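Record type: ASSEMBLY
Status: queued
Input:
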Amino acid sequence: MRSPLAATRIRRALATRRRRVVAGVVAVVLVAAAVAWAAQPQRPGFRTESALVTVRSGPAGDEPVELDTTLYLPRDASARRQVPAVLLAHGFGGTKESVRADAEDLADRGYAVLTWTARGFGRSGGEIHLDSPDYEVRDAQRLLDRLAARPDILLDSAGDPRVGVVGGSYGGGLALLLAAQDHRVDAIVPMITWNDLSRAFLPESTGKAPAEGVFKKGWAGLFFGGGGTVGSGPAGVSGTTGGQPEGAPASAGAPSPQPGAGPGTSSGRAPGGAANPSCGRFAEDVCAAYLRIATTGRADDQAVDLLRRSSPAGVLDQIKAPTLLVQGEADTLFPLTEADANARGIAAAGTPVRVAWFTGGHDGGTGPTSDSDRVRFLTAQWLDHYVKGEGPAPGESFTFSRIAGFDALDRGLVATGYHTDDYPGLAGQGHREVNLTGSAQPVANPPNGNPAAISSVPFAGAIGSLLSGVASDIPGQHARFESAPLTEPVDVVGTPTVRIRAASPTGEAVLFVKLYDVDPKGAATLPDGLVAPVRLTGLPATIDAAQPVTVTLPAIVRRIESGHRLRVVVATSDQAYTTPAEPAVHTVALGGGPLTLPTVAAQPIPTTATVWRWALAGLLAAIAVGLVVVVLLVRRRHRRQDSSVHPEYAGVPLAVRRLRKEYADGFVAVSCVDFEVHPGQVVGLLGPNGAGKTTTLRVLMGLTQPTAGEIYVFGHRLVPGSPVLSRIGALVEGPGFLPHLSGLENLKAYWRATGRPWADAHFDEALAIAGLGDSVHRRTKNYSHGMRQRLAIAQAMLGLPELLVLDEPTDGLDPPQIAEMRRVLQRYATDGRAVLVSSHLLAEVEQTCTHAVVVNKGRIVASGPVEDIVGESSSVLFEVNDPDAARDVLDRLTGVRVLPESGDGGLVVDTNGTARSEVVAELVRAGIGVDRVVPRRRLEDAFLALVGENSRGSGDR
Amino acid sequence: MGESVGAGRIGPGAASGYRPSATLPFRAEFRRQASRRRTQLALGFMVLLPLVILVAFQFNSGNETRNRNNEFGSLVDLAVSGGLNFALFSIFVSSSFLLVVVVALFCGDTVASEASWGSLRYLLAIPVPRARLLAVKLLVALAYSALALLLLAGTALLAGTLRYGWSPLRSQVSAELAPAEGLLRLLAVLGYLAVVLLVVAGLAFLLSVTTDAALGAVGGAVLLWILSSILDQITALGGLRAFLPTHFSTAWLGLLSTPVQTDGLVRGAISAIAYATAFWGLAFWRFTRKDITS
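Status: finished
Output:
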């Protein structure tokens, strides 16, 4: 619309804008609300009660100790709606706060969760007795009593609460020992915990007793230091809330003793001034045992007995509570063998046992998300069935997982889960044998174990299983035996075994046997940093006399790819262990027989990855189907479209019938327009700015949908995109060219877009009309307005369309060009062709057109052949020197009427049959000077009726 | 596209030689775009960038602080170890922003620029059926986007191979990949990047039919992409982030690990295809109904 903006229009536009703003604001608010709803912290479904409670325990059950407890109680728990309970124990070095996340999780599942800080830690009193049945376990029994006394806890019988015990590491050991000692416990989920504490700290891989074991000094030091939350479990159980060392896998407990957190400084509640600075909060007997072992590297029977008392190994047959054992693969502290021993012992008593392995552990933390999710699920399933009494029996199937690689998105590890129906144990269901080669090699034992090989850096195990570089051996201190490259991959699940022989002049050797996975490039990886320490005694001086011993290597879950080699390394030192201080040179050789690798036939656990893959396939299929449906629908609608020819208008280039266009904001641009263009006619669409001419042409070009009415072109109903549009050439609202192309290239590009034969274009005629000369090769962005206009008219004439529609064609043209254009248009409208020209200039229409249609305010005001309209009308313009006197004279003449459009200079008079000469004579007779007499024409009348008195456009209505 | 179904039929009452399905042929649109300076510049820059990187590496003094913060920082260190690694590096540095801008340029500018020149109404008056106009414009824009991607990777691979040799693909998260296998992975990376960039293509195209300002469409698409990337950094949003179109944009790194991590790729592809389809669907729905006012 070219009309100036008037107040009403601005108001309308503002109204529209206001609606949009409101809609926009509503949308933003909705999105913000959705985000806030999704991101808001959930209202907890539980309440907590924290209390320092005093319980009596000790061998006689009469030693009071204060325990720091927190009970998480589901909101709806009450005497009428009693809830089952879970005793949630934390790991070594932690407090009740370490397990808060898990407690909240379980509380949300409808359990009353009792957490407490074990004696000797945090704000609790007492000393650390290492899960002693007389102390820590008895403390937990008293807590069970307290639970049973509450009205809102579900009871099996008086004094016997419905309760499960969950804990990781130190807490896991407590769960096992408590279940053995107190049969009120209904189910337990011990995670990453020990079977025999003495074996865990003094392992020996040829099956010797802990008294013969090799002291695991690295972990023992961390444990005794007690500063870090050594006990870290999967699924965040016992996860620390404190800061983590850099580089530790997510949620792993802090391994490093923090300054000021060692023995004696760990709590302000440590026993008063009498505390032994070397023992801290440890009980005296525990402390003494540690000091003895750590000094010599060997355990005496007394120390072993003490550790055995704190171990479930001896009481497994007492455990009647169904047990879910969760153990970590990346765990050099409590390896898979500990859980295996627990599982066998408990199952032997006929108690349901389920085993699950995950890729974390004391080294690997909670492992990848898929692992912690699985552990969380298994735990909930176990408790729900055996404690809450909901859901089907979980069964005793075995699940484990294997590190599959890095996740590109969160930079973490990715594990693939597997399951089998039965727990296969560590020896596997089947086995693969791999032959090793290598001659006998001398290895030196370094004095005082320094320098030492590095097998594991605590908490780096999971990474170490994938990346080589953590493990290293010292030259001269290790022997290597290697296999040929594997011809096919093997999935090792369990404990490989290998036979070795050793000789030593000292008769005794401490050796570390490790199994490396060596890739074709030679990079060796020690799975999870696990090593098998052996203490060989009674060795001969020469290797020939040595007897082979079978070494059970650590249990691993790993795929050895084809092309990889297996390497068995026998080293004399390891940073994590105490080795003999005396230097010596041993000789190590293979013991004959292959390396045996246990395998398990397991099915991958379907993961979300499979679901996503199906989802992707489904999405693609849905898009394909959707596309086909849309195409079919459009095609059908296309077919149904009325393609018949209106008989009345079959030969008429253009017939517009009762056209109406109303815009969304309520503005009516065209209210009712009716006209026809016949062959041979040059029709002028005349009207002031904003009369609705351009809107009419836009509808005619299929750019705009009419609100009502029809347009027929040669009898074909015209809708946007009608093929019949191809018979119309148009210039609407100015030229539109690609600015970077020359005039000629523009015309060619345009014609190429029509897809019509090149010869039909008639470029020469069009170029002649454009008359651009050499400028046709210049870029159109450098054209003047007039040049562009001429090029646009030439473009409209390409292909010599039967109907030419030109909107203000002379805009920007100079007078000679206008005159030329007139001739061109008149010539064009021959041979059955027709031209429709819109203009707001009366003279232009008058001179160019054969017919005229006058529109104003969206309506037709006059139409017909120009001659008819231009023919003289009965009105005459008189210019006189005294208009007032003349008015009096004219009023006296019968029939003659002064029309209201008369202005200052002249009077417009309807002579109504009276001869003009007679009127002039009357005026002259009355002494009035007549300067000019101009006969008015009908078109002008019509036009001036609209424009002359009121030049405002229809847009201003 | 619906109109193109009637291929071969001459529309009722059409001028001789006019067929709706023959209007605006792919080649014609391809030439229209090829003649534009911005197309030439964008494609030229794709060729230039790897060469600039190559020259920069030549001037490398070798004692700069290296980025070893994550497993993928090694990409930088390994870039000069062979042609494949160099190509991978070039893709790595341009994937987060440059390629986004280029794709947004090709897809966001295509309809909006015609509207701003005023030539759109003449195309529609030919008449090129609206759905066909969009389909051809979209296909040509996608073709140029793909061409840009291939030019970048191809130049980098060629230049890198000439300079550093045809070596196996190395990365710290995988074993060394033989050149043939490495090339395959490189192509897979390109394929995934192309899929992820469909989101940008969809968004830019939707904006392109909504506005007459070409700059607005291109800038808007890039702006929203950056906004999404920023939101993706906010871990507090938790699971909501998975719905951000940029969340999986770096999942192609999973193709470099051994074995290949496809989980992120699949989810990324789902996200990208769903978004792109939605945006394009909206663009077609809107453009085939709206009044052309430009």
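Annotation: Chain A touches chain B through 79 residues (CB under 8 Å).
Annotation: The two ends of chain A are 13 Å apart (CA to CA).
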